[in-house]
Amino acid sequence: MKLLLPDKSLLKKTGEVDYHEWNYKFPVKYVQLYRFKKIIELLDKKKYNTLLEAGIGSGIFLPELSKHCEHLYGCDVHNNMDNIYALCQAYGVKSCNLSSQSIDNTNFPDEKFDLIVAVSVLEFVPDIQKAINEIKRILKKDGFFITICPMESRILDFILKFYTRKPPKEESGNSRQKVSNLLEQNFVIEKKGYMLPIIGKFFPVYTHYKLKKN
User: Fold this and answer.
1) 12 assigned to some structural domain
2) What is the domain count for the chain?
3) Which domain covers residue 130, as residue numbers?
4) In this structure, is residue 63 part of a structural domain?
5) Which residues, by range, are in coiled-coil regions (predicted)?
6) pTM
7) CA-CA-CA-CA torsion for 8, 54, 96, 89, nearest 10 degrees?
């Protein structure tokens, strides 16, 4: 699968947990790129009308997502949208609407989106249940929520600590213990899988979901 990854010179760090540079750094880039490729795989070669990426960070995934929808939206808590609009313009993304707001409290109307995507986002939201409620509010009845989330594991913790130079719980607290249960309690699972499929079921690193409203 060929993934459109922007030139890193066009990306700007937007906060302490924006590690976009990892996507270009060996060997951690293979873990990073796995997440994006898994999301694209879960799109099932379908083009959506309205697509929201929650937690866009530096905007690294937007040019690729734009190929899979008619109208692209993105939101994040930072205020670096001018640089991301410039990035989108550089890659010919014509229909893109960006806003500085958190996924747990947006100003989007009810049932706005056919698809909502979140890549390693929910573990950083203070109240995951509140974010899930908001996602369900703005997702169409027949829409999908596709996400990939890091789990609490010694393997992943070792990788994260090596690159961030701090314990993972310092950034995400205990949210990695909660996110899967909350997702499965609040949505209907269309697809679920693990990084390192067989081993990952018992020692999860990343878990991905394609979900529908229940």
Assistant:
1) no
2) 1
3) 17-213
4) yes
5) none
6) 0.90
7) -10
- The enclosing H or E element of 116 equals strand 113-119
Structure tokens belonging to residue 151: 């789990």
Identify the DSSP state of 132. Answer: H
Q: State the CATH number of the domain containing residue 57.
A: 3.40.50.150
Radius of gyration of the chain (CA): 16
For residue 99, is it within any domain? yes
Q: Is residue 119 part of a domain?
A: yes
Cα(201)–Cα(87) distance, integer angstroms = 37
- The Cα–Cα gap between 55 and 121 comes to 6
Per-residue pLDDT tens listing for the chain (214 residues): 789 999 999 999 998 889 899 899 888 888 889 999 999 999 999 999 999 999 999 999 999 999 999 999 999 999 999 999 999 999 999 889 999 999 999 999 999 999 999 999 999 999 999 999 999 999 999 999 999 998 766 656 666 555 566 655 554 446 667 899 999 999 999 999 988 776 656 667 889 999 999 8
Residue 166, token pair as written in the block? 């701090």
| Residue 17 token pair | 């947990």
Q: Which residue has the tokens 């996602």?
A: 135
Strands 96-100 and 113-119: unpaired
Are 36 and 3 contacting, i.e. CB atoms less than 8 angstroms apart? yes
